[in-house]
């Protein structure tokens, strides 16, 4: 009924092991998830990260979804992690989310990552600022 429409979902992500963040979002996913099935057909996606851990919002006891708290939106293509990067993706995911090691193997888990093409930062009320991907 919603074929072709955008659909949101919560997926575990990691941008690298705790002491080696890369800024590239890695995901541990299953093809049995409708979101992943959609991404395999059309890999265009966006990801918004709230400033949940930022000092301003915590210090001032402001809800992380309040516009005064920064949020970063990444947009790009979701791709399967190539074989030469799987070990790094595994370290990235399992070091930050150890529970995934216990997820049922019958779900055919695999790694995807986002090839970031656009970045926007909203740090106050109003419009977002574009940030160069290289930054």
From TrEMBL:
It comes from the Eukaryota. InterPro entries: CREG_beta-barrel, Split_barrel_FMN-bd. Its main location: secreted. It is found in: Secreted. Keywords: Glycoprotein, Secreted, Signal. One of its GO terms (cellular component) is endomembrane system. It holds the Pfam family CREG_beta-barrel. Residues 2-135 form the CREG-like beta-barrel domain. Belongs to the CREG family. This is CREG2 protein. The gene is Creg2.
């Amino acid at each position: 009924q919603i074929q072709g429409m955008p659909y949101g979902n919560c997926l575990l992500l990691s941008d690298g092991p705790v002491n080696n963040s890369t800024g590239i979002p890695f995901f541990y996913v299953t093809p049995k998830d409708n979101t992943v099935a959609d991404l395999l057909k059309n890999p265009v996606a966006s990801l918004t990260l709230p400033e949940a851990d930022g000092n301003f919002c915590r210090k001032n006891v402001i809800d992380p979804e309040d516009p005064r708290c920064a949020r970063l939106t990444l947009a790009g293509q979701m791709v399967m992690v190539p074989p030469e990067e799987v070990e790094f993706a595994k370290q990235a995911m399992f070091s930050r989310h150890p529970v995934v090691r216990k997820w049922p193997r019958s779900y055919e888990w695999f790694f995807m990552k986002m090839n970031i093409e656009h970045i926007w930062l909203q740090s106050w009320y109003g419009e977002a600022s574009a940030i160069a991907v290289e930054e």
